[in-house]
Amino acid sequence: MPEILRSVGATERWLMVVIVVICLGLSLATDTFLTLVNLFDLLNYSAVNLIFAAGLLVVLIAGGIDISFAVAASVVQYLVVTILMQIGGGNWAIGLLLAGLIGFSLGAINAALIYHFRLVSIVVTIATFNLFFGLLMFFTGGVSIYALPGWLSRRIILFEHETASGWAEITLPVLVMVVMLAATWFMLRRLNLGRQLFAMGDNPEGARRLGINLGAMHYLAYGWLGLCAGIAGLMQVHYAREVVPNALYGRELEVLAAVVLGGARLGGGRGTLLGAVLGLALVSITQNGLNLLGVSPFAFRMIVGLIILIAISMSSETLRGLTEGLRRRRIREAQS
Amino acid sequence: MPEPDPQGVSLLRLAHVSKRFGGVQALDDIAFDVRPGEVLCLAGENGCGKSTLIKVISGVHRPEPGAVMEWDGRDISGLTPSEARALGIQVIWQDQALFPEMSVAENIAFERNLGARPRLVDRKSMRAEAAAVLARLGVDIPLSMPVGRLSIANRQLVAIARALVAEARLVFMDEPTASLSQRETDALIAIVHRLSAQGIAVVFVSHRLKEVLEICTRVTVLRDGRLVGTYPTAGMTQARLTELMTGASFDYAPRPETRPAAPLLELRGLTRHGEYHDIDLTIAPGEIVGLTGRLGSGRTELALSLFGMTRPDAGTIMWQGQPLRMRHNRDAIRMGIAYVSEDRLSLGLVQPQSIADNTVVTVLDRVLGRLGLISPARKSGLVRDWLTQLRVKIGQPTDAVSTLSGGNQQRVVLAKWLATAPKLLILDSPTVGVDVGARAGIFAIVDELARQGLAILLISDEAPEVFFNADRILHMREGRLIEEFTPARSTLAELEEAVHA
Ligand SMILES: Nc1ncnc2c1ncn2[C@@H]1O[C@H](COP(=O)(O)OP(=O)(O)OP(=O)(O)O)[C@@H](O)[C@H]1O
Ligand SMILES: [Mg+2]
Asked: If you classify domain B265-500 with CATH, what class do you get?
């Protein structure tokens, strides 16, 4: 096995295999899948979800869960665009700063409720999910905003290439996504704070006895997800060129499923960024493929559900069990 | 009464320390002192407050107001876990506070990751540091293995290594030897002496009184949350210490020889490759068969097969004269086989659930009322019966199991299996971490159960335990049964010599 693959966990390897198989299948079944235009489209579209996934992974590793982040991103979109229009437009720096700040604050609300009132994270975030969404719909009356600052609705193309089937482009959200993934990876793997998050998710009592500040860790985890959600929200506005209050409603479950598929453990202490990215890639590629094959979008939900069931039952533990069993049988055969 | 400290020789001095948890007075006006570089033992029955005292000193629990806590003569009341560690107070916890998903190296050197200020993780030095400590301990554990996949004994060693990484001046070891083999225990004792020679004080908690008297210079005895006193170990005997701890005395004698009835369970040539080989064994109703041998000799593996958890590769299991094939442990439970596991903390109990729920989980069908719903009245009746028989010290049956002291958790596991009214009871190291008084209590129950016709397989690596409580003793080594002893016709010294040879 090549060196680089050996440091990759079993779940990630398994996901890579499945993704390769699906890509091969789609390349043979359609002539549109394996084109630069389609692949870049897929990447541009998935950038927002990948930023969400990075943030959510942090919360899952810390032993929590959050389902309010997607509607929180909608709240951020609405507030940021309103503020920007009030101050006369602003620019990218102000926009990103505002989005990150408001997103962080919304995440901090979750952290405060969960830590200081010792409430269960799923219950708290179901409540804030409804609270954020209810407030948003109440104040906007469900009305979308189409008047955006010019810089925000102007598409920024980082790379383009003309192909037979049209222009293939990579846009700004992809760069922002790469930066957010790198920052998340750096925090989780290279900073002491990330290791403390892992420790808290793995054994909260052990972490407390070592003197890890559990309160600060809650603010870090949920705040980081809020920050990611805010920035992802802004990127989604840039991509869609409009603010629709319920545009992101429902994304939370799609992203959560993908991250869990990538090996993050509900309950904390385990999860890798590579896994989360691969989990999301698998879901997005499947969706894209079904779309190209002309399958109904309802079938997509069903198939995502199936993939998750299969993936979870083939989790690394099961795989290890299988290989152990095979090894034992071989020893027995060798001895008889 | 606080001990006067006129010369200021104490490293740590406590007075008037009390701690209540709801209705339980875990500590009541304790005075305690530790001198630099000494090895002190903290002794007492299960639930007398040893772990709680350690938690107070390490900042995990705050004592009731009025407590005096001094470190080098300075007031340290109200300290937090990180302040305690900054002073040089390190704890090896009884319920290991490790991170199972993380590597051995990171667990040992986690100290480097602490602190609120963002800092880069230095994996290389962490690995080097962990390797150095493990080398100092004289053990070899793969550094990148997740701790959750280590054996319990190795996890214990990792916990010890973690405490030794930091600049410690006082190390608490809360039952560090409970799951170690003799060889590992000897290595640990050597380390304790080395630490003490370097001026590091060690406070040692153990229920193995022989060990206590061997390694400590002073012993502090607690009973029911109160201080009995602190005594020099010179001239102290196990019997005297037991009396101080329990307020009662016990004496031991081997069981009289009996003629066994027709076997309940008979093994012929039972083999599972790599675990045990060619095992012939019989157990009759009313008989207590001891199975001893070093850690890793295959005892637990054999027990797991008898309980239907693994399948033997060859040989037969006869149950009441009929061949028995088990596919799961459900089959075993149905036949009347009960197994009290060695690893009670992770396998035996559902920690956050209540004591009552843990006790009845094996017999849910017997606490069902009309309509097949669980009847609270029957449940609490059954729970109360067993908990009083086993003298488990609890607040309320509805408290979570995780609030019990280590030894009391063990008794809840026993209650859980006794409630199934089994025909064969497999006890795998049933007294790990259980105090003398309770050991006697548990074996009195085991004896009574045997009298009622239960067959009992008692697995233990403590020779005296099997010697005084079994009718026959089988000695296992490297997966094979190599000898059989009858306590009534041999001596404890003979058995100990054979096992440790
Ligand atoms: N967090 C808690 N909540 C409620 N009760 C507690 C808690 N921690 C300890 N206790 C109770 O305090 C008493 C002392 O417990 P502790 O763990 O200190 O005993 P111990 O001397 O360490 O016993 P063992 O030898 O069995 O480990 C016990 O009755 C225990 O049930
Ligand atoms: Mg204890």
From this structure: alpha beta
